[in-house]
Specification:
By secondary structure, this protein is α+β, with helices and mostly antiparallel strands. It has helices spanning 23-30, 87-94, 104-117, 123-129, 141-150; strands at residues 2-8, 11-17, 49-52, 55-58, 71-73. Residues 2-78 form the 2Fe-2S ferredoxin-type domain.
């Protein structure tokens, strides 16, 4: 067992872990941050995406010890200071970018990383960026629409599929 410390959503967090503890396990089991989902256990679905030092990372592919001293942001950290939904979260709600909600945390975190790198992405760029995230419910159309809205695009002329 070893000790790990990091900043999670702006707050200091630490815990005792085994060397094989994945970041997603540490977040969920040690810190109780269950918004980061475990979907496939093979790093294919993207439900576990978090930001580590500003970079989108699939938390099931990273050991918690690798995040020692890092700044980690989870879906819980995407809300506004007053607890209301952040811009991307609100866009997902407004444009029905979720159904069952299982993939939503990873989609929101991926969208945030995309918009940080490219504040004005095209529909094609959004679809390309989301290639590592799987949604089995929505058909992606409204997810893409929500991300476009969060980027400030006028989505009123986008036809529903």
């Amino acid at each position: 067992m070893s000790q790990v410390s990091m900043t999670v959503n702006g707050k200091s967090a630490s815990g005792e872990i085994e060397g094989r503890t994945l970041l997603v396990e540490f977040l969920r089991e040690n810190l109780g941050m269950t918004g980061t989902h475990v979907g496939c256990d093979t790093s294919q679905c993207g439900a576990c995406v978090v930001h580590v030092d500003g970079k989108a990372v699939k938390a099931c592919t990273m050991f918690a010890a690798e995040a020692e001293g890092a700044n980690v942001t989870t879906i819980e950290g995407m809300a506004n200071e007053d607890g209301s939904l952040g811009t991307i979260q609100q866009a997902f709600q407004d444009h029905h970018g979720l159904q069952c909600g299982f993939c939503t945390p990873g989609m929101v975190m991926s969208a945030a990383a995309l918009l940080a790198d490219n504040p004005n992405p095209s529909e094609v760029e959004i679809r390309d960026y989301l290639e590592g995230n799987i949604c089995r419910c929505t058909g992606y159309h409204n997810i893409v629409k929500a991300i476009m809205a969060a980027a400030g695009h006028d989505v009123s002329k986008i036809a529903a599929e």
